[in-house]
Amino acid sequence: MFNARITVPPQAKAGDIVEIKVLMRHPMDRGGQSDGKGGIVPRKILNRMTATYAGAEIIRFDMHTGVAANPFISFRTRAVETGDIVFEWREDGGATYTRSARLTVA
Amino acid sequence: MPSRRDLVALAAAGLALTAYPASAGAAENETLDELVRRVTDGAAPAETGVTLDIPALVENGNSVDVRIAVDSPMTEAEHVRWIHLIADRNPFPDMARIHLSPRAGLAEVATTLRLAQSQTVAAVVAHSDGRYAIAKAPVVVTLSACIDGG
Predict the structure, then answer these.
(1) Nearest CA in chain A to B146
(2) Predicted complex ipTM
(3) Closest CA to A101 of A61, A48, A58, A70
């Protein structure tokens, strides 16, 4: 169900501000529809994404039903050292997903 | 063949429908203000320093690109704490909150939103020194996102 495509620049100079783009693949089911058996479909969306780089959290994206299916987020960070940008997602129901992308700083 | 009485009833219903949007519009602004004040703890946000880039007309409300840029040095002493996105005519008006840290370096983010209908989208910004700022933009949606149940 879940996947993410993360785009970071191939290389950055220390001190540069770089743009990081993340495209998530997720239906972001807002819930509330009839399930055809007398019940309603529960909400099932990614409700949080965090990105951590060089020991600090850069961004925390709290999502509600007003975020599109297959959400996109772009943000900036200052390149300080070569290292992984670690992403973590939290989904309704408690599932978590992690991905990482390496930023190479020359 | 409808009777004269039926026709009169239909005409009255039509009048009621055309009269409705004006009153709904007045209520909308009040509601947006209320929603904004709820996230700012009652403070009135300044209408400066925030750029909200969103198309004025979209065909499809299912995925609307938005870009928000805030004038901020993004230092430890002075940075943007969060950006909160509100759509007062969505069934759930709080669309998203993006928390930033000084490590972002630049307060500029982009994402994709769902809009249930034509309305005003607001981006409320909380600065680290306790100030609030806001930018608003009207968006016309010709085909709305199916997010109001059913």
Answers:
(1) A30
(2) 0.94
(3) A58
- Contact (CB, 8 A) for B65 and B54: yes
Pick B17 or B55 by higher pLDDT: B55
Look at residue A92 and tell me whether its pLDDT is greater than 60: yes
Chain B residues inside the 8 Å CB shell of A54? 103
pLDDT digits (tens, 9 = 90+) for A47-90: 999 999 998 999 999 999 999 999 999 999 999 999 999 999 99
Question: What CATH number does the domain containing A84 carry?
Answer: 2.60.40.10
Q: What is the pTM of this model?
A: 0.85
CATH 3.40.640.10 assigned to domain B4-143? The reply is no
Q: How many CB pairs under 8 A join A and B?
A: 106
Candidates B63, B65, B100; nearest CB to A59: B100
Kindly identify which residue of chain B lies nearest to residue A42, measuring between CA atoms.
Answer: B149
CA dihedral B100→B104→B106→B112, nearest 10 degrees, is: -60
Domain assignment of residue A18, yes or no: yes
CB-based contact, B75 to chain A, within 8 Å: no
Domain enclosing residue A73, as ranges = 3-29+44-103
B111 close contact with A: CB closer than 8 A: yes
| Choice between B28 and A96, residue whose per-residue pLDDT is larger | A96
Q: Would an 8 Å CB–CB cutoff place B130 in contact with chain A?
A: no
Measure in Å the smallest separation between the Cα of A54 and chain B Cα atoms.
9
Q: Give the pLDDT of residue A93.
A: 95
**DSSP readout, B102-131?**
GGG-S-EEEEEE--SSSEEEEEEEEETTS-
